[in-house]
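Quick note —
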Amino acid sequence: MSKKWQITVPGSTANLGPGFDSIGLSLNLYLDLTVSLADQWEITHVSDHLPQDIVIEEHLIYTIARETAARFNKELPPCRVVMRSELPFARGLGSSAAAIVAAIELANLVCDLQLTTQDKLNISSQIEGHPDNASASVLGGLTISQMDEQGIVDTIPVTDLDASFVVFIPKVELKTSEARKVLPEQFERGYAVRASANANMLAASLIAKDYVRIGRYMESDLFHEPFRSALIPNFDEIHRVAKEAGAYGTALSGAGPTVISIIPPAIGNQFVLTMKKYFPKHEIILTKADHQGISVQVLNDVPA
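Predicted structure written out below.
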């Protein structure tokens, strides 16, 4: 007998301002894979957010699943995968991290790897190169993480944030690799101390659930936003208008170009209506934190 699985992985936002490459927050926007064993590989996209011209050998799901199986000296069997996504590509909402986490889980299931949660954190973060989006997608909630030189991830989860989030998604793409090119190679010591202190205060404010301070320190980044802001449509205007409409704070989502605001839950619908009037060319979505992280459901047993 062979099984059919549904793998669901939340997207995420990273950094929240100065939490560069270390703070991630899962959002209730999802990547979904329906997986079954097959005679040959087949990946079907059934979402507007996913491309239709698929080369299996170059597909991220296939390449990461095969790499994961190979780490444990297993051969990945062919699968039929139906892929749905609410995460637009290259917009700063963790689409690649979600796909990596999903692919690792696919290999875990079909090769019976019996990976622990720590294994999934380590492998996904090693592939991503940093633990922010990957940790949030694996665990759910907000994660504050560090990855050492051996690729071992240490993370502290923060749950039950009493806040909503609004994402401003422009029609343009911005790959993380391109956004990193504008960053300085090094910082002067005093500048680095201020940037680090702001990141520390953001983390402390998140743990304390001090939303006014969360907003303040989200908007105090010195590591990347001053250098990336010119690449982001309406970056300064969104900051200003969101603050006037009641947001605690606004920051780039990951490397951008999406911008995210943290707001009191009570103003969510009115906030979105107001923002849509000012920024009609953006897709504006009211969302909240996902608290489950990756989930797997066995759909049914079918004859092999």
